[in-house]
């Protein structure tokens, strides 16, 4: 079982007076110092002290209510002005060898697959043809380096929760044509909501007392680990960042060339919203600054306006292009205080804890030469649940050199809509309910609810709905072809 259950995130507001009735930053700092003295190894103490300094600074900003992701003034929000949002289709030039040799690729890989019932790193899950997310990522960089005769290093940001699984997968590529650098992101203490004190009692308390503080931590951890300095010393100037579970987040030479020619320091890839993306953060102009607007920052009376695709047509894919020299300059001089997101967790022992996290995209407000680019949907193909996994494991896609490529024989450019009930939520349940992944190359829509099991070599076409009522089980026989069918609890088939 997972250690905690998720609840919706919120952004800290300056007006939340309840925070100020609890122990302040000095009390938290004192409690963190007590954790420090529980470590006897000097090297471990030094690393822990550096991490906790960053945590103290975040908690101080959170507790004081200054420079946080507050509810924004709606009247000051407007679409990005001309020149700050470009279309991918307008790009023409490809990056040359000189530019590619200045590139590094970073994968955010700190998350677990708890939403899919995975106990370890989601990136170690088999995606297709026996290959994990990490296998595909390494193969992508291998292919790029081999075909272009360049040296693009792969940097993987792990967490204390995913490091072991990550090393287990990538160690087999030690002698291949790709350099893999790994570093751990920060490990922060969860905060007991009732007392606003740290959850762990020692620096080596069990894992559920700690958490990785979101992908916004990559900037500080990149510097603290020494990887930022290493990349710069090797002549690397540009960093492409994407989530490890986004199979569409691959190096694009046209975007890289645009990034360089436009003399940008920060470029965020956005794509058009669908019905499933209405809560996604969007790129806006706020008080003269390009900024990532998240749902939690929107005044309550404007939430429906935020979700409207007529008002906000795009959302952040978390594919980011960053100038490393500019990043170092900002970290060294101004600092990079990101909007703080407060998340609440319910532990198995009944305790309610708070996690303070940040999102990498919110860094855009600190870069003066920043821009957004509207990219095709194919550059955003995340696997967040088993419905997504069914899609990428199906015959909709094939694997070529680590890349997920749409099969030519599908007549439609759009991918089918797939909805699976909670019976398919965990990876174990999902795999037990499909003897083999059905063919869905001609599928438009699939909805499956209840205790449903699919046999081998099934073929689903058009609109297919399979609904088992409570207490009943539906077994779709081997070799079944379902086209525009509703399958009810007693296996009656109704043509749609």
What do these coordinates show?
The protein is α/β, with parallel strands linked by helices and 496 residues long. Helix content is 23%, strand content 28%. It has twelve helices and 30 strands. Strands 4-21-15-18-14-5-8-9 form an eight-stranded mixed beta sheet, sandwiched between helices. Strands 1, 2, 11, 12, 19 and 20 form a six-stranded antiparallel beta sheet that branches. It has a five-stranded mixed beta sheet with strand order 24-25-27-29-30, covered by helices on one side. Strand 8 (154-158), helix 5 (163-170) and strand 9 form a beta-alpha-beta unit. Helix 1 (25-36) packs antiparallel against helix 2. Residues 1-22 have low confidence and may be disordered.
Offer a quick outline of the entry.
By secondary structure, this protein is of the alpha/beta class.
Round the mean pLDDT to the nearest integer and report it.
Answer: 89
Q: Strands of the largest sheet, in order across it?
A: 4-21-15-18-14-5-8-9
The radius of gyration over CA amounts to 24 Å
- Terminal CA distance reads 40 Å
Largest sheet: 8 strands, mixed
The helix fraction, in percent, is 10-25%
How many individual β-strands?
A: 30
User: Spans of 5+ residues with little confidence (pLDDT < 50)?
Assistant: 1-22
By helix and strand content, what is the structural category? alpha/beta
Strand content: 25-35%
Molecular shape: globular
Number of helices: 12
């Amino acid at each position: 079982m997972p250690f905690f259950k998720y609840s919706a995130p919120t952004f800290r507001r300056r007006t939340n007076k309840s925070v100020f009735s609890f122990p302040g930053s000095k009390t938290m700092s004192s409690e963190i110092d007590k954790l420090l003295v529980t470590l006897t190894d000097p090297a471990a103490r030094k690393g822990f002290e550096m991490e906790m300094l960053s945590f103290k600074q975040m908690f101080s900003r959170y507790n004081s209510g200054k420079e946080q992701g507050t509810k924004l003034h709606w009247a000051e929000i407007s679409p990005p002005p001309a020149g700050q949002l470009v279309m991918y289709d307008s790009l023409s030039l490809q990056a040359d060898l000189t530019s590619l040799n200045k590139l590094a690729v970073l994968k955010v890989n700190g998350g677990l697959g708890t939403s899919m019932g995975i106990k370890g790193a989601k990136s170690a899950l088999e995606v297709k043809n026996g290959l994990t997310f990490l296998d595909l990522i390494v193969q992508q960089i291998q292919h790029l380096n081999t075909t272009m005769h360049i040296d693009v290093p792969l940097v993987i940001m792990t967490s204390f929760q995913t490091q072991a699984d990550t090393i287990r997968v990538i160690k087999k590529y030690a002698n291949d044509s790709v350099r893999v650098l790994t570093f751990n992101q920060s490990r922060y203490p969860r905060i007991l909501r009732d007392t606003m004190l740290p959850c762990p009692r020692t620096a080596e308390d069990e894992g559920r007392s700690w958490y990785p503080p979101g992908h916004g931590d990559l900037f500080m951890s990149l510097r603290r680990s020494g990887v930022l300095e290493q990349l710069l010393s090797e002549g690397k100037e540009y960093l492409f960042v994407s989530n490890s579970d986004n199979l569409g987040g691959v190096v694009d030479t046209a975007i890289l060339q645009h990034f360089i020619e436009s003399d940008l320091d920060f470029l965020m890839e956005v794509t058009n919203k669908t019905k499933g993306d209405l809560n996604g953060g969007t790129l806006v102009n706020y008080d003269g600054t390009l900024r990532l607007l998240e749902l939690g920052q929107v005044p309550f009376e404007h939430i429906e306006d935020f979700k409207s695709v007529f008002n906000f047509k795009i959302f952040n894919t978390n594919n980011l292009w960053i100038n490393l020299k500019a990043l170092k300059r900002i970290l060294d001089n101004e600092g990079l205080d990101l909007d703080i997101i407060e998340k609440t967790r319910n532990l198995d022992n009944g305790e309610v804890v708070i996690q303070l996290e940040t999102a990498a995209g919110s860094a855009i407000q600190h870069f003066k030469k920043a821009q957004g680019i509207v990219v095709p949907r194919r550059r955003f193909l995340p696997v967040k649940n088993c419905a997504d996994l069914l899609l990428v494991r199906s015959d909709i896609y094939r694997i070529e050199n680590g890349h997920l490529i749409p099969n030519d024989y599908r007549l439609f450019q759009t991918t089918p809509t797939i909805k699976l009930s909670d019976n398919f939520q965990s990876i174990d349940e999902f795999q037990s309910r499909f003897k083999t992944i059905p063919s869905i190359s001609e599928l438009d829509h699939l909805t499956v609810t209840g205790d449903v099991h699919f046999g081998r070599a099934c073929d689903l076409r058009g609109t297919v709905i399979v609904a088992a009522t409570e207490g009943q089980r539906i077994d779709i026989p081997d070799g079944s072809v379902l086209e525009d069918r509703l399958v009810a609890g007693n296996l009656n088939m109704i043509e749609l």
